[in-house]
Design goal:
With about 90 residues, the protein is mainly α. The chain is built from four helices and no strands. The protein has two domains: about 5-55; about 55-90. Helix 1 (about 10-20) crosses helix 3.
């Protein structure tokens, strides 16, 4: 039975940088380092995905929601500017 080993963040970051900068495959590196290849895939997933400018579905949904909210805020701000412009033009 395998024991769950807790690695420090510094160790993980060192391994992630090694994987990202190496010309070797994760499978080959996992053999050389002595870590499970699944662990290396898991640790480097975010960095590999973002380097490719690829968003997962959750990130894409969150960005769409933020874009919709920003568009609504912009419409509201334009309405407010229009109302204030009308009020100021009547006073002059």
């Amino acid at each position: 039975m395998k024991k769950n080993i807790k690695y420090t963040d510094e160790f993980k970051e060192t391994i992630i940088q090694l994987v990202l900068k190496s010309d070797k495959s994760i499978v080959k590196l996992s053999e050389e380092i002595g870590l499970c290849e699944r662990t290396l895939y898991k640790w480097t997933y975010f960095e590999r995905v973002t380097k490719r400018d690829f968003l997962n579905l959750v990130q894409e949904r969150m960005l769409k929601e933020e874009l919709d909210k920003t568009r609504q805020e912009l419409k509201q701000a334009k309405r407010e500017v229009d109302i204030l412009s009308k009020i100021l033009s009547k006073k002059i």
